[in-house]
């Protein structure tokens, strides 16, 4: 398995912060949204890294920051695939364009992501043309056909327009477009959330297959823990801009340590009708990132919060075996 | 207990430029008061159209089948919904005896009308409450569904509320006219799991308190397992399997239901491969002859499933399935 510490991580993030200034607030200070705050992660090459959390947790912003699609407020962010190394926090425009061919994004909504006026061939070819990665039309066509076949698209589909396709096929077109520039790192943001279960299973199997075949590294962003459990080797749980727990998938699902992770797992509706009422319920909602609570960000909903949780923000502590948790009381709560 | 709603031979077609297409084909089911029926299927299976048909909410190009009958049994009255013609006649049912909550609560509230105005407007239409009484009652309903600081929320607009809060407000609104039947169309799909769990709990409490019937439409079998008493599985406009939640989820009989369950990422077995059902749901313009599922079915019997429409067959007292293969196997033994 991947994820060994002696390998140079493909993506290395240290104390990363992304803040957005909001308009309004009248005179004086503008309100600031701390969408990502103090995040540290290493993503090993060839891994399928899951990022989970509720809406408003900052997972999409973190994903975009790793693609350098949003400005970075503070911290270090490096990409290193052995051939090329980019310092993404200070990267220049020309270099950023190069980075784009190595790092790509697959969107959530396959209906909104594809232009209705372009043929499938043109949609898939666009990144190659924009980035100038091919020298001739023949070469472009060759690359398009190659990736279309990998994504199990029929070659005669290439001449059609996206409206002729179902949700699952559209998502395969989006995947082909993201992969045509032969990236090393792909961010998949809720890429199966809009699909029916059967199509979802098909797209997940395809992603896994392609990842192994092309040796890709995935950051898989999802709110669906059961999907993440099946496809990712490593998982990070995010809450209000902070990482609260990171661990190898099996470990996280077998022995979650943070009360938030436990609550998330418990909220997944079980397929067993006799499990009714057994779930441990979490009250309230995620607070607004413009006005986060002091101390641990989860304290307003945590059934175990005590004084220290309301005053001091917990650090992400290592508990051994690559398992990290940010909770003042995790040790006590394990007993 | 007698049933609250009886749907018999519901067939619904739409006249379109490309011809008449069948959206719902000979669907029958009943629901008792105080019970939750789950209606499951992929997008395009006809779940929402079926639900809307119960209030004749479908657009004007909808053509109902001749044999269609929908009867709603209220305390001392029986309403034949197919006999209601004008909008005025429909008022008893729409928002009165039957309420509906939708998947996307943002789209269900007008952006420039406050939550409170939405709520009092319908009370004025369906009850004889005064404005003052309607306001008090609406605020009470908002707190009843777990919205804190209800009198402030009452004055706010949909964009000022979070997704979970909006869905609660939607539920409060749907319930304030005290409907006998609540149709919930994917009410938790757009919500986070922790909020979904809260909304499911809320709906269960409400069934107990108000004693109404709920038709719960969803594609999520986990949500069904945790809420429904009975389940109906729909594919391309036809019901293919019906039974109690234990029957259908624990011992699915139809190849389609089995396929839906095999495609789910299961938490109790992380090594289980995800098995997609091959192919896509066909367009309603190209409805396959015979069993509607035959184009994707791996166990279809040649010469039978592609020709003859399977009829419902009881595998147990509370469980029936429309599949030639299941019926053949059962008759062998």
Our Rg estimate of chain A from Cα atoms comes to 21 Å
Per the CATH scheme, the topology name of chain A is Rossmann fold
Strand percentage of chain A lies at 15-25%
Strand content of chain B: 15-25%
- Average per-residue pLDDT of chain B, rounded, comes to 90
Oligomer: heterodimer
| Major sheet of chain B | 8 strands, mixed
The N- and C-terminal alpha carbons of chain B lie at a distance of: 35 Å
- Write down the domain tally of chain A: 1
Morphology of chain B: globular
Describe this structure in words.
- The complex is a heterodimer of chains A (335) and B (333).
- Helix content of chain A is 32%, strand content 21%.
- Chain A contains 11 helices and 12 strands.
- Chain A has helices spanning 59-66, 93-102, 120-131, 137-150, 167-179, 197-214, 225-231, 249-254, 259-267, 307-311, 330-334; strands spanning 11-21, 32-43, 48-52, 74-80, 85-87, 103-106, 185-189, 217-222, 234-239, 242-248, 317-318, 324-325.
- Chain B is of the alpha/beta class and 333 residues long.
- In chain B, a hairpin with a 2-residue loop joins strand 10 (230-235) and strand 11.
- The chains are: A alpha/beta (335), B alpha/beta (333).
- At the A-B interface, helix 5, helix 6, helix 7, helix 8 and helix 9 of A face helix 7, helix 8, helix 9, helix 10 and helix 11 of B.
């Amino acid at each position: 398995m991947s994820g060994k510490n002696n390998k140079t991580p493909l993506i290395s993030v240290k104390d990363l912060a992304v803040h957005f200034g909001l308009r309004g607030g009248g005179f004086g200070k503008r309100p600031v949204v701390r969408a990502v705050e103090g995040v540290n992660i290493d993503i090993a090459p060839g891994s399928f890294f899951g990022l989970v959390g509720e809406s408003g947790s900052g997972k999409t912003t973190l994903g975009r920051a790793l693609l350098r699609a949003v400005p970075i407020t503070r911290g270090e962010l490096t990409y290193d695939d052995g051939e090329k190394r980019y310092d993404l926090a200070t990267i220049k425009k020309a270099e950023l364009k190069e980075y784009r061919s190595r790092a790509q994004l697959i969107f959530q909504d396959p209906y909104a992501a594809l232009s209705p006026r372009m043929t499938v061939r043109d949609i898939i070819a666009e990144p190659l043309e924009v980035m100038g990665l091919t020298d001739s039309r023949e070469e472009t066509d060759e690359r398009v056909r190659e990736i279309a076949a990998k994504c199990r698209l029929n070659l005669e589909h290439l001449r059609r327009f996206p409206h002729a396709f179902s949700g699952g096929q559209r998502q395969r077109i989006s995947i082909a477009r993201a992969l045509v520039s032969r990236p090393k790192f792909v961010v998949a943001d809720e890429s199966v959330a809009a699909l029916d279960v059967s199509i979802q299973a098909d797209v997940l199997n395809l992603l896994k297959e392609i990842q192994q075949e092309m040796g890709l590294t995935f950051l898989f962003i999802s709110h669906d823990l059961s999907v993440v459990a099946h496809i990712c080797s490593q998982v990070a749980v995010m809450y209000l801009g902070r990482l609260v727990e990171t661990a190898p998938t099996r470990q996280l699902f077998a022995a979650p340590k943070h009360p938030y992770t436990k609550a998330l797992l418990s909220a997944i509706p079980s397929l067993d009708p006799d499990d009714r009422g057994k779930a441990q319920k979490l009250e309230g909602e995620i607070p607004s990132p413009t006005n986060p609570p002091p101390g641990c960000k989860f304290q307003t909903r945590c059934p175990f919060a005590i004084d220290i949780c309301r005053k001091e923000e917990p650090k992400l502590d290592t508990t051994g075996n690559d398992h990290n948790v940010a909770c003042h009381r995790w040790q006590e709560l394990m007993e | 207990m007698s049933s609250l709603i009886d749907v018999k031979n519901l067939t619904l077609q739409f006249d379109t430029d490309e011809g008449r297409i069948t959206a719902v084909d000979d669907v029958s089911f009943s629901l008792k008061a105080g019970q939750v029926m789950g209606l499951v299927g992929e997008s395009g299976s006809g779940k929402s159209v079926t639900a809307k048909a119960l209030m004749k909410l479908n657009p004007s190009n909808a053509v109902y089948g001749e044999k269609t009958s929908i009867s709603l049994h209220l305390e001392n009255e029986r309403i034949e919904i197919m006999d209601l013609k004008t909008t005025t006649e429909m008022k008893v049912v729409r928002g009165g005896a039957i309420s509906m909550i939708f998947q996307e609560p943002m789209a269900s509230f007008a952006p420039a009308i406050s939550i409170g105005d939405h709520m009092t407007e319908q009370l004025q239409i369906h009850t004889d409450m005064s404005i003052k009484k309607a306001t008090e009652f609406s605020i009470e309903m908002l707190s009843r569904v777990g919205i804190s600081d209800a009198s402030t929320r009452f004055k706010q607009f949909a964009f000022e509320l979070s997704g979970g809060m909006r869905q609660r407000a939607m539920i409060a609104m749907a319930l304030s006219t005290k409907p006998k039947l609540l149709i919930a169309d994917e009410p938790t799909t757009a919500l986070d799991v922790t909020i979904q769990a809260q909304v499911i709990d809320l709906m269960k409490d409400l069934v107990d308190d108000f004693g109404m019937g709920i038709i719960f439409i969803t594609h999520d079998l986990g949500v069904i397992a945790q809420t429904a008493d009975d389940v109906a599985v729909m594919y391309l406009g036809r019901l293919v399997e019906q039974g109690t939640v234990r029957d259908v989820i624990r011992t699915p009989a139809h190849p389609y239901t089995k396929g839906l369950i095999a495609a789910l990422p299961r938490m109790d077995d992380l090594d289980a491969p995800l098995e997609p059902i091959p192919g896509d749901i066909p367009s309603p313009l190209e409805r396959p002859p015979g069993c509607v599922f035959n184009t994707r079915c791996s166990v279809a019997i040649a010469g039978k499933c592609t020709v003859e429409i399977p009829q419902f067959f009881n595998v147990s007292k509370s469980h029936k399935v429309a599949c030639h293969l299941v019926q053949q196997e059962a008759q062998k033994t």
